[in-house]
Amino acid sequence: MEISPKYRMELTHKVNEAIYEEYKTYKYVKLYIEKWHQEEGSWNNAWENFIIYFKDGTENIDLLTTLHKMEGEDLLKIAIDMGIETPNFIPSIPTFKNELKSSYKTASATFEKAFQQIESHPDIAVGLANSALESIICEILKDERVTYKTTRKETLYKLTQEILKEFSLFPNGDMPKEIKAIGSALLKLNQNIEQLRSDKTIFHGKTEGDIVIEDSIYTYFIVNSVTTVGLFLNSFYKYKLPKPPEPNEKIENHDDLPF
Which of 54, 75, 91, 240 is most buried by its number of CB atoms within 10 A? Predict the structure, then answer.
């Protein structure tokens, strides 16, 4: 994965600082980096995804050099794991993860699995991202203030239709044409994500000759689309149907009451 030298320098600096802020000591920084390190092969045919460098004459990890020497792909994975924004690639991931953890536990677990599979199994990641988006919409539609009651068996396309209707964003003739076009585009986007899951992944079974997504760059694009749609729907839901205020706390001190 190609990253411009300027952006890579900036990202490496941020990752270096974030890791030391999180783990504090050389020992724990080394332990963290070792969890990303992979190696295999025999003595005359060894492979490793990156080299761990040490400060001269010590067992202390030279983290900055280690990060600079990594492939861009590994650097990006660590950056995202540390919650650092990566606007050139998947800008919404950290924000999306935080939103999921706080409000959508099932979707959060599914999305985490999707993210971990992007490089190793791009097609599986697409299917899991589709499922995460379905879970988010189903969770919103469970709100008792929502008219439509989900059966939990609807497709992503059907769920998108229903939530757009609930939010008065479903394309119709009364809308300005620009808003109608955006609603149609969102509906079409989710339909295509669903079709990719059905037709270009192993989720529904494949035979020899069938096309399956194998390039992670497409999966990054799809997962980024899912985060964008998911964040929009969650934000609009909070705006359209805000949580009712918490009941007032019981007043323990009655001295100032006028009765």
Answer: 75
For the chain, which ranges sit under pLDDT 50?
249, 251, 254, 256-259
> Bridge-partner residues for 54, per DSSP?
61
- Mean pLDDT across the chain, nearest whole number? 85
H runs (alpha helix) in the chain: 5-23, 26-34, 63-69, 72-81, 93-103, 105-117, 122-141, 156-166, 177-199, 216-240
Inter-residue contact 93 to 227 (CB < 8 Å): yes
Three-class DSSP category at 182:
helix
As a whole number of angstroms, the distance between CA 203 and CA 155 comes to 14
Please give the CATH number for the structural domain made up of 90-242.
1.20.120
C-alpha to C-alpha distance for 19 and 28, rounded to whole angstroms? 9
Q: Which two tokens stand for residue 109?
A: 């677990």
Q: Is 70 left (phi over 0), alpha (psi -120 to 50) or beta?
A: beta
pLDDT tens column, 159-192: 999 999 999 999 988 889 998 998 999 999 999 9
What whole-number distance in Å separates Cα of residue 138 and Cα of residue 135? 5
Domain boundaries, the chain: 1-39+47-85, 90-242
Q: What is the pLDDT of residues 139-164, one digit of tens each?
A: 999 999 999 989 888 999 999 999 99
In 10 A of CB 145, how many CB atoms?
Answer: 8
DSSP class of residue 40?
A: E
Single-letter residue type at 187: L
CA distance 128 to 219: 11
The CA–CA distances, whole Å, from 225 to 130, 171, 177 equal: 10, 20, 23
